[in-house]
Specification:
heterodimer, A: 204 residues, flat, B: 233 residues, 12 helices, 0% strand
Chain lengths: 204, 233
């Protein structure tokens, strides 16, 4: 049934091994994990959010009890891990097996990184020096403002290409253009964004 | 910040600028996503950053539970004594159900490639999953006019006709009915038809559909029961 959550009304009996494996993967069976990936690739977050937001508090509690940290810190690093986890899922770098362990470890890594560098950056790659990658919230505010001046196509192309990591070839097919034409359109969008961005941002 | 200043001045190499722009757009989207999840956690799971969820079980004194129950009882009494002024009307409830529709797009289509018709179908699906119902609607319209139109084209057109800003429930009904040859979304279609008939003011046509959904405990049976009880308002 469309929209069915993991292990809901499945009407099937699971062996102990299958249940254990599903538990290691946030209640997801392998087929449900594949569905979740397909949905994520299509920009549909519903199943991902249902699975991961429902276990968010459990992760927070684990970090608090394991590391003796404040709740707000545990919340922040769990959120950081959630963002990164989704990106790695989209990039095909996480496979079905032991997602619970991976997620917890990722959150722990963010915690140890935070303890080394007080300013938390939105960098995905924890191995990079986070301070140099930090983007000021002022800059992001200006970017949000500049973004509003983009047309729908530009906004969609830039988000698809840079955030969802959709290949140029795929984008070209979606928009019914050649790859070269789409590349030029992307560049025009970037130029527009930069011009609007410079206008919106007034560095001190 | 040095890289940012160089970006503004236009003195980054093309590769460095590309990397920096990617980082900017990622940061922008991450920030928006973080905000959305924070709101969803608080709203749907009672999880907040600075305080644990209120249902901490064993530590709550019994007297506190009694106070909460008393407060809820008073609130219910207040609402009852003030009549149903704050409850949504039937039409508002139908609109809320339409706004809350979460029927997923055709996932396999989004992975496929494609001839020209499939490209159009993919674009329609993409607009749909991005909640751009105006755009999606016009793309599905185009598809249903082609010789290679399939039942699901009509199905998604039917949804978009309901969800777009200037909803056209009559067109939605026609499209949904044409999609009926494909039984894949049979239950969802029944619910959509019920909503579309309600939206079009055809409550008596919606009645047997809602009754069937409820008696079969089908998709959205609880919501269908609510609407059924309110049909005569």
């Amino acid at each position: 049934m469309i929209g069915q959550t993991p292990n809901e009304n499945s009407g099937t009996t699971h062996s102990g091994e299958q249940s254990s494996l599903a538990h290691k993967n946030f209640g997801l069976e392998a087929a449900q994990f594949d569905d979740m990936l397909i949905q994520l690739q299509a920009g549909e977050n519903a199943l991902f959010e249902k699975v991961f937001l429902s276990q968010f508090e459990e992760s927070v509690k684990y970090l608090i009890s394991t590391y003796g940290i404040q709740r707000s810190v545990a919340y922040d690093v769990t959120m950081d891990a959630l963002l990164k986890f989704r990106k790695r899922l989209l990039a095909g770098k996480i496979s079905y097996g032991n997602m619970r362990f991976l997620f917890t470890r990722m959150a722990s890594q963010f915690l140890s990184q935070r303890n080394k560098h007080p300013v938390i950056a939105l960098s995905e790659n924890l191995n990079e020096r986070t301070e140099s990658q930090a983007i000021d919230s002022d800059v992001l505010d200006a970017l949000d403002l500049a973004w509003q001046s983009l047309c729908k196509d530009c906004s969609s192309i830039l988000n698809q290409y840079y955030y969802r990591k959709t290949a140029l070839k795929t984008l070209a097919k979606i928009y019914g253009k050649s790859e070269a034409a789409l590349r030029k359109q992307k560049q025009r969008c970037l130029d527009k964004l930069k011009a609007a961005f410079i206008k919106c941002y007034s560095p001190e | 910040m040095e890289r940012f200043n160089n970006y503004i001045k236009g003195i980054l190499s093309p590769k460095a600028e590309e990397e920096f722009v990617e980082q900017l757009i990622e940061a922008k989207n991450d920030r928006a996503q973080r905000k959305a999840w924070t709101e969803a956690l608080a709203r749907d799971y009672n999880v907040e950053r600075d305080r644990p969820p209120s249902s901490s079980g064993n530590n709550r004194p019994f007297i506190y539970l009694l106070l909460v129950a008393a407060a809820l009882g008073l609130a219910a009494l207040f609402l009852w004594s003030n009549g149903k002024q704050s409850a949504p009307s039937f039409d508002e409830q139908v609109d809320m159900q339409i706004a809350g529709l979460t029927i997923m797009g055709d996932q396999s289509m989004l992975r496929k490639s494609m001839d020209q018709v499939d490209s159009l179908r993919k674009a329609a699906n993409l607009a749909y999953v991005n909640h751009d119902y105006e755009d999606s609607n016009s793309l599905w319209q185009r598809l249903t006019q082609l010789p290679k139109a399939i039942a699901s084209d009509y199905f998604y057109l039917g949804i978009c006709q309901l969800k777009k800003a200037d909803a056209d429930p009559v067109a939605s009904i026609a499209a949904l009915q044409r999609s009926a040859i494909d039984t894949t979304y049979q239950q969802e279609r029944a619910w959509l038809l019920a909503l579309a008939h309600c939206k079009a003011g055809q409550r008596e046509v919606a009645r047997p559909i809602l009754q069937s959904i409820v008696s079969n405990k089908a998709y959205q049976a609880t919501a269908a029961k609510d609407l059924l009880e309110r049909l005569t308002e």
